[in-house]
């Protein structure tokens, strides 16, 4: 292969022609038009660099981003930098069109053809580029900061590019946004442990202190779980690596925290993206994962791939946006810098103008609603092919058959009264959970109604397929039912259906009061069994527990006022679940949680002498309930009320409207 000979020849010719200023070793002065650059994070000896360079090859993300800010001509980069940046910040993808992939390691022949004034790299001595030969093409500035926090990396490159004032402006904006976030938090960050977890098809990892994400959390003031408080040589000694540590089912407890953020890497490959999205779904469905305190409290959040990188200014600010969205009820008043980035800002301004002056085409209408996470948009007046997440049973009360949905068998098992309808839906496609762009496109929808937590990675691309309504999955179930009624032009139907639920609640309250006395003196607990000695006490975030309190029952004090979904507990603390009546869900798995393993868990607990010391067990007021007690729809509400009628052995006049006519 003759390529290396050609490269050496061209480099020699460069020197002869004077393209690159050659310096004697140890020289401290540079030729005219150049300046000597030295820095504590420079990976090489001091280097002479142009005073006014215009053409760059950028081999790391922080330098690439700063060049975009300075509107410099980026002529080359590497595939992984380009693809990762485009996938993570798609708003800037157009700015990188035409940038040549110079390979990894860098193809010097191709680099020479691009005629750069400078080459910006992370540690070139690690093999990304042949430093000696590459330096004959253009001065190479190589940083020893490989994967580090945005601030140190950006400050370094700002000194290289004479952009000190820009960095100071960035730093001031970042600090101001951090201060605003700290003021908006409803928790004391110093007392709140935040866990960082990556889950993908290759496994799961926790992130330690020597990472960009950890630096952002530290700037806010958050604590970290003990398992993630390692850095430097201590981390290497404990885990064999400085930044992340692999975990398994046996060590999944290392991922626990008061708050947990889960993310994966970014990719432009839609099939790979779908695979990794599904990997996160599978990971979160694990009973072991479900047993973690942060998960049980409803404080685990799937976030975008900007968390995986987080080492640039814009990605760090995207992380701040997520912290605002997940931990506060406040919108930041200091805008994400991306929204004021040149071109992006112009695009957003045009979009805002279009929104305020929006006029829908014939056959469409303007739609907005309180549970929407996506922007208001035009939707069909009479949609025919609807892609919907989560379950088809949510649409059944409106007489709507989806063209695409998910979870047919589980949905049918949860609601046997409409199982034939669910399983008999013709030509309905399974769009997966989470769905991907290909599965949604295959439905040929004219409207998509999707839960926000299930489409995090593809939310910006969804409107390219069809008009899209992304709703808040954690919103109150009644608000979500009204939302669907409004979508289908059936608001009156939705209100009438909710009124029937309220009637049944009132009748059930009266019937129980009449039979048992003051219902307000009866405490009911809902307990999920994850495994032997591993339990969860649910609070009013569960629709079933919400209905219990609306009927008039008390719930255990331990969960009465807490914000999350409930609290994990063990055999040593079972008294927190003490109640007059206990409802049990065997959560080993299965659509109705009544599979063999789930039944075994319930049977084991019912025979446990320790549990049999509780009031409800001694009074034989313990009842096994199904997965519908975890669902949050109109169908679930009626089925839960039916179960309570049976449990308390009372009669009410208003029947479940979805049961077959008994006359």
Automatic annotation (TrEMBL):
PROSITE patterns: FE_B12_PBP
Top-level taxon in the UniProt lineage: Bacteria
Keyword Transport listed: yes
Principal location: other
Residues of the signal peptide: 1-24
Record's subcellular location: Cell envelope
GO BP annotations listed: iron coordination entity transport
Keywords: Signal, Transport
Transport in keyword set: yes
Annotated GO CC locations: outer membrane-bounded periplasmic space
Annotated ranges, domain Fe/B12 periplasmic-binding: 55-331, 385-652
InterPro entries xrefs: ABC_transptr_periplasmic_BD, Bact_iron-sidero_bind
Pfam families: Peripla_BP_2
Homology family: Belongs to the bacterial solute-binding protein 8 family.
Protein name in the entry: ABC transporter substrate-binding protein
Lineage, highest ranks first: Bacteria, Bacillati, Chloroflexota, Candidatus Thermofontia, Phototrophicales
């Amino acid at each position: 292969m003759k390529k290396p000979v050609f490269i050496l020849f061209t480099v020699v010719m460069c020197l002869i022609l004077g393209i690159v200023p050659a310096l004697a070793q140890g020289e401290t002065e540079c030729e005219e038009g150049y300046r000597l650059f030295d820095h504590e994070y420079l990976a090489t000896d001091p280097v002479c660099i142009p005073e006014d360079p215009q053409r760059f090859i950028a081999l790391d993300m922080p330098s690439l981003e700063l060049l975009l800010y300075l509107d410099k001509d980026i002529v080359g980069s590497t595939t992984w930098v380009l693809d990762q940046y485009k996938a993570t910040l798609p708003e800037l993808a157009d700015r990188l069109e035409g940038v040549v992939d110079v390979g990894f390691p860098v193809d010097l022949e191709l680099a020479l053809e691009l005629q750069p004034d400078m080459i910006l790299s992370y540690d070139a001595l690690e093999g990304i580029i042949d430093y000696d030969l590459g330096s004959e093409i253009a001065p190479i500035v190589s940083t020893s900061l490989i994967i580090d926090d945005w601030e140190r990396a950006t400050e370094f490159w700002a000194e290289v590019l004479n952009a000190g004032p820009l960095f100071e402006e960035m730093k001031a904006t970042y600090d101001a946004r951090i201060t605003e976030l700290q003021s908006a938090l409803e928790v004391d960050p110093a007392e709140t442990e935040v866990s960082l977890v990556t889950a993908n098809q290759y496994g799961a990892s926790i992130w330690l202190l020597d990472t960009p994400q950890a630096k952002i959390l530290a700037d806010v003031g958050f604590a970290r779980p003990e398992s993630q408080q390692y850095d430097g040589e201590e981390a290497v000694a404990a885990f064999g690596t400085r930044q992340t540590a692999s975990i398994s089912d046996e060590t999944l407890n290392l991922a626990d925290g008061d708050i947990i953020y889960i993310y994966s890497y970014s990719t432009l490959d839609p099939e790979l993206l779908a695979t990794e999205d599904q990997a996160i779904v599978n990971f979160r469905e694990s009973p072991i994962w479900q047993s973690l305190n942060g998960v049980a409290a409803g404080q685990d959040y799937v976030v975008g791939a900007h968390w995986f990188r987080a080492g640039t200014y814009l990605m760090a600010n995207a992380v701040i946006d997520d912290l605002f969205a997940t931990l506060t009820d406040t919108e930041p008043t200091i805008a994400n810098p991306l929204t004021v980035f040149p071109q992006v800002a112009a695009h957003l301004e045009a979009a805002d103008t279009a929104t305020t002056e929006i006029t829908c085409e014939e056959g469409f209408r303007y739609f907005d609603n309180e549970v929407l996470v996506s922007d208001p948009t035009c939707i069909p007046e009479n949609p025919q092919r609807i892609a919907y997440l989560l379950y088809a049973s949510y649409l059944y009360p409106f007489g709507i058959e989806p063209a695409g949905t998910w979870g047919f068998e589980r949905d049918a098992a949860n609601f046997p009264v409409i199982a034939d309808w669910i399983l008999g839906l013709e030509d309905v496609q399974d769009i997966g959970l989470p769905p991907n762009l290909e599965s949604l496109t295959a439905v040929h929808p004219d409207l998509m109604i999707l839960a926000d937590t299930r489409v995090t990675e593809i939310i910006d691309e969804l409107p390219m397929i069809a008009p899209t309504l992304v709703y808040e999955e954690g919103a109150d179930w009644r608000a979500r039912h009204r939302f669907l009624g409004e979508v289908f032009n059936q608001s009156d139907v939705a209100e009438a259906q909710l009124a029937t639920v309220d009637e049944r609640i009132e009748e059930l309250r009266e019937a129980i009061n009449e039979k048992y006395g003051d219902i307000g003196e009866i405490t009911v607990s809902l307990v999920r069994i994850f495994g032997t000695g591993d339990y969860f006490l649910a609070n009013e975030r569960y629709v079933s527990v919400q209905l219990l309190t609306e009927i008039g029952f008390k719930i255990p004090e331990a969960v009465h006022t807490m914000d999350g979904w409930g609290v994990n507990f063990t055999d040593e603390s079972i008294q927190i679940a003490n109640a007059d009546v206990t409802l049990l869900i065997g959560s080993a798995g299965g659509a109705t949680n009544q599979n063999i393993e789930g039944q075994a868990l319930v049977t084991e607990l019912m025979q446990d002498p320790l549990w049999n010391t509780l009031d409800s067990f001694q009074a034989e007021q313990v009842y096994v309930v199904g997965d519908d007690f975890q669902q949050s729809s109109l169908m679930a509400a009626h089925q839960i009320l039916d179960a309570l009628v049976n449990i308390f052995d009372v009669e009410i006049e208003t029947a479940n409207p979805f049961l077959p006519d008994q006359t």
